[in-house]
Amino acid sequence: MKNLLIMRHAKSSWKELGLPDHERPLNKRGQHDAPKMGRLIRKKKLKPQLIICSSAKRARETLERVTEAFGYSQEIRFSEALYGAGPEAYIKLLKELDEAYDRVMVVGHNPGLEALLERLTGEEQILPTAALARVELPIKGWRKLGDSVDGELIDLWTPRQFSE
Questions:
Q1: How many domains does the chain have?
Q2: What is the pLDDT of residue 46?
Q3: Which residues contact 116 (CB under 8 A, 6 or more apart)?
Q4: Which of 47, 70, 74, 164 minimizes the number of CB atoms within 10 Å of its CB?
C-alpha cells in the first residue's frame, strides 16, 4: 500500500499585475493557511518520506511554510514539469520513484491536482487553495501507478475545516 498526499498551493497574490504567473508569491491568507496545514500534517502523523513540488514561487513558498510547521528535513524535489501540469505529469514523476517510499507528497496547482485526484480515486473533488488530500493506493510499487489504479480518498482537509 502506498500513500499519496496531494496539496494545492496556498492562496497567491495578484497585487503585481506585471509579474509573470510563475513568480506570484503567497498573499497574507496563504501565508497564514500554509503553516496551519503543516500543523495538521504533524497532528495526523502524516509526515512524507519525499515531497515533489512545482517550481512556481507560490508552491515553493507554501511548501516552505508547511514543512517548517511539521519539522521536515528529508528529500524535496522541485519540478518545472508540475507547473500547469495535468495528471499525466504527476503520474509520470510518481512512477519513477524508488519503491522504498511509502508516503509521498505532491504540491502543485489546479486543475491538474483535481484531475489527478479524480484519476486515482474516481471521485470528483474541489481542492481550494491549501487543501490537502490523503489517498491510499492499493499498489506495492509506484511503477504500478496508472489509469487503472483504484485508490481511496481517505481524508480531504481545507484550512477552514481544520481547527487547531
A1: 1
A2: 97
A3: 6, 87, 90, 91, 106
A4: 164
C-alpha cell at 67: 514543512
Main-chain phi, psi angles of 148, to 5 degrees? -95, 10
State which amino acid sits at residue 105.
M
pLDDT band (50, 70, 90) for residue 147 = low
111 belongs to a structural domain? yes
Q: 116 lies in a domain?
A: yes
Domain that holds residue 34: 2-11+22-157
- What is the chain's length? 164
- CA atoms of 65 and 42, how far apart (whole Å): 13
Q: What angle do CA 54, 77, 22 make, to 5 degrees?
A: 25
Q: For the whole model, what pTM was predicted?
A: 0.94
Type of residue numbered 23? E
CA-closest candidate to residue 91, choices 38, 153, 151, 41: 151
Decide: 156 and 131 in contact? Cβ < 8 Å: yes
Q: How many Cβ atoms from other residues are within 10 Å of residue 122's Cβ?
A: 12
